[in-house]
Amino acid sequence: MFYRCTIPMSLPALIKRIDYPVKGFYPEELTADIIRKAEIAIIDIHWNYALAGAYQLVKDLKELNPEIIVIAGGMTASMYPEQLTQKLDIDYVIRGDGEIPLPALVNAISEKTDMTHIPNVFGKNGLVTEWSYFLTSEELNKNEFYDLRFFPSYQSDIRKIHKRHFGWPNYTFPYLLPFRGCPMPCPSCAGGIGEQKKLFRRGCVVRDAEKLAGDLSLLNSFKDIRFVNVIHDFVSLMPEDYVNTALSTPNRLSLVYEFTTAPPPERLERLFGTFRRGVLYFSIDKMHTQSDHLIDPSVLINLIEKTKKTGRFIPVLYYNSTFKSNPEYVKVLNAVARQTRCLTADVSGWWEDFPRPDENGIASTESFAKFFDLSQKPKLSIFTKLKRWLVFRLYLVFTFILPDILLLKIKSAYVRLFNPYLQ
C-alpha cells in the first residue's frame, strides 16, 4: 500500500463476488476476539514491499487462531506462490486474475468441498491447479467497483478525505477503470502489456465505454464522493468514439488524471467539459514517465497552458529523475517547467525494486529473499515507532487541514529542493 487509504483498485469488485459475509479491517483494528472468530482471512500482496507486513500479519493471525485459513492474491503473491505458502504460512495463493478463482475457493473452504476444479490455485497442502483462468472483457464488465460497506473504517476514511479535498491525495478511491493492464508496451512497468502477459498470462482487457459512463453517473450520485482518480489513460490511448461515449455526460465531480502521453487538444477540451475541476498530470514522455522518448515540448506547453487558462484545472508536469543523465531530457524538462511555471512531480524509483517474473509468471528466489529479509529485521525501538507514528499523524493533519493547491505546491517545492538539475 502507498499509505493507509489505498487498496487495490478491483478489491471491492472481487469482494462483491463472494457469497459469504466479508468484513475488512486495517491491521491495527484486529483484536484477538476478531481473529479467533474468523474462519478465512483474505490479504492482498499486490506490491512487493507489502511482503514484510504480510509476514507479520499472517504470523499474528496464526498465533491467535491456528485454524484460520489465509488466502493471498495480487501481483507479488502470484509471482511467489511457493515461497508464500512455505515461508509465510499462507494456505492458498490465487495466481493471476481472481474474479472467478477467489469466490470459488472461499466457497470450497466454507463448504468443505473439492478444490481441484478451481483454476489458478497454489496451496501449501500440495494442491496446485491449472492456471487456466484469464480475465475477459465480459467478466470485467460485470465488476462493481464502488461498494465499500464491507470495510467500514476505510469507507469512513474516504468520506473524510472527500469532505475536504477535490484532488488530493491521488491513488485514492474511487478510480475509473477503463482497462485491466495497459495497452502501452512500457518495458519497466508491471502494467505494460508485455509484463501483463507474464504476470496474468493475458494482454490488456478493456471495459466497454458505456460502463465508464455508467460509473461516472453512479459516482456523481454519491453525495460523499467529490472526485475520481484516473490512472489508466483512456483519453489519449483509446479511439475517439470510446472517449466520447465514456465522457458523454457532464457531472459535478472533480478529476485527478494521469496522461500516459500527450492527449489530442480536442480530447483535453472534452475533459474540461465533463468535469467540474481537478488536477491533471502531464507526462513529459510518451510512456507515462517510464522512458526518455520525449513529447515535443511545444505540444506539452500548449496543453499545460490550455489547462491553466480554464482556471478550474491544475496542471502538473510529471517526470522521472532516473533519466537525469540524459542532457536532452533535462533540457526539455527545464524548458517546459520554466515557460509554463507549472507544478512538478517526480516518479523516479516507482518500478526500480519491483521483481521481474519469467515467462511463466514466477520471480526468482533471490528476489524474494531480498524482500523477505525486510520482514526478518529486529523489532523497531520505541523511539523509532514513536517517530513513525508522529510522521504519520503529521501527514494526516496536513492532508485533512491544508487545501489541495497548497499540498501540491509543497510537494512540488520538495521535488525541486532535492532535484537540483530542475532549475
What characteristics describe this protein?
4-stranded mixed β-sheet; 18 helices; 423 residues; 11 strands; alpha/beta; 43% helix; globular; 5-stranded parallel β-sheet
Order of helices and strands: HHEHEHHEHEHHEHEHEHHEHEHEHEHHH
Ends apart, CA distance between termini:
32 Å
| DSSP E strands, number | 11
Could you estimate the helical fraction of the residues in percent?
A: 40-55%
* Strands in their spatial order, largest beta sheet: 7-8-9-10-11
The tally of helices reads 18
Rg, alpha carbons:
22 Å
Low-pLDDT segments? none
Structure description:
With 423 residues, the protein is α/β, with parallel strands linked by helices. The protein contains 18 helices and eleven strands. It has a five-stranded parallel β-sheet. A four-stranded mixed β-sheet has the order 1-2-3-4, sandwiched between helices. A two-stranded antiparallel ribbon has the order 5-6. The radius of gyration is 22 Å and the shape is globular. The longest helix is centred in the last third of the chain and has 20 residues, at 382-401. The protein has helices at residues 11-16, 32-37, 51-64, 75-79, 81-87, 101-111, 137-142, 152-164, 193-199, 209-221, 234-237, 240-246, 265-274, 297-310, 327-340, 365-374, 382-401, 404-417; strands spanning 40-44, 69-73, 92-94, 121-123, 179-180, 205-206, 227-230, 254-259, 277-283, 313-319, 343-346. 43% of the residues lie in helices and 11% in strands. Strand 9 (277-283), helix 14 (297-310) and strand 10 (313-319) form a beta-alpha-beta unit. Helix 14 (297-310) packs parallel to helix 15 (327-340).
